[in-house]
Amino acid sequence: MFNLILFGPPGSGKGTQSEKIIEKFNLVHLSTGDLLRSQIAQQTPLGLEAKKLMDKGHLVPDEVVVGMISSALDANTSAKGFLFDGFPRTAAQALALDNLLELKQAPISVMLALDVSEEELVKRLIKRGETSGRTDDVNEEIIAARVLEYKTKTEAVADYYRQYNKVVIVAGEGSVNEIFERLGAEIESRL
Ligand code: ADP
Predict the structure, then answer these.
(1) Minimal CA–CA distance to 109: which of 120, 101, 121?
(2) Is 128 a catalytic residue?
(3) Quick one: which of 41, 113, 166, 168 could link to 7 by a disulfide (CB 3.0–4.6 Å)?
(4) % helix, strand, coil for the chain, step of 5
């Protein structure tokens, strides 16, 4: 099994690159943002609670996202590997993921961390908000709250994997294909 985390701040291109990576390397894409938006679309109680937090730019509680990931792992027993996108986002989520993967004897191989300047991030998010219909991309205040959550809670996840030498920083600016080439080379060298 080959398990990979695609890491980076909101707007760093995780979703776009994930689509290309899973197709080329035949991995199962687990995006907690997508899983949550699907719960919102189905108007489940979990989705309705999560939406309140997401619309303020806050993180959803660890238990909620860990539960969703745990179910998704169980639902994909024949996967060749998983690409985690937008998860883990806190140190507690990283620990929980390691415990879940230990049961499968399939640890995280690498965390690829997309590096994008803050100026470029805000520009991309505002642009995405014009077409995506995502209620958390529409104004700078919500975006600023997401960036703050990233800095105060999520950056620690990179420190967590750094202690196991699993973090590789990848330049996240340039064309979609250029960035994909860089990510693909890192993956290929570890398969
Ligand atoms: P982005 O990375 O561009 O902000 P996502 O789709 O990954 O977009 O996440 C959107 C929102 O969903 C986050 O701002 C947060 O509220 C919630 N969310 C997604 N993943 C997690 C997670 N692992 N832990 C807590 N909240 C999450």
Answers:
(1) 101
(2) yes
(3) 113
(4) 60, 15, 30
> Three-state SS string across 74-130, please?
HHCCCCCCEEEECCCCCHHHHHHHHHHHHHCCCCEEEEEEEECCHHHHHHHHHHHHH
Distance CA 154, CA 168 (A): 16
Domain range for residue 64? 2-188
3-state secondary structure of 140: helix
The candidate with the shortest Cα–Cα distance to 29, out of 39, 20, 18, is 18
Q: And the tokens for 65?
A: 């996202």
Q: Could you give the number of structural domains in the chain? A: 1
Q: What is the pLDDT of residues 87-105, one digit of tens each?
A: 999 999 999 999 999 988 8
pTM of the model: 0.95
pLDDT digits (tens, 9 = 90+) for 116-150: 999 999 899 989 989 988 888 888 899 999 999 99
Pocket test for ligand 1, best of 146, 153, 160 (most atoms within 8 A of CB): 146
CA 56 to chain centre: 18
User: Who lines ligand 1 at CB under 6 A?
Assistant: 10-11, 32-33, 36, 53-54, 57-60, 65, 86-87, 89, 93, 136, 146
Atom of ligand 1 nearest to the CA of 61: 25
Q: Alpha-carbon distance 186 to 39, whole Å?
A: 33
**CATH classification at residue 91:** 3.40.50.300
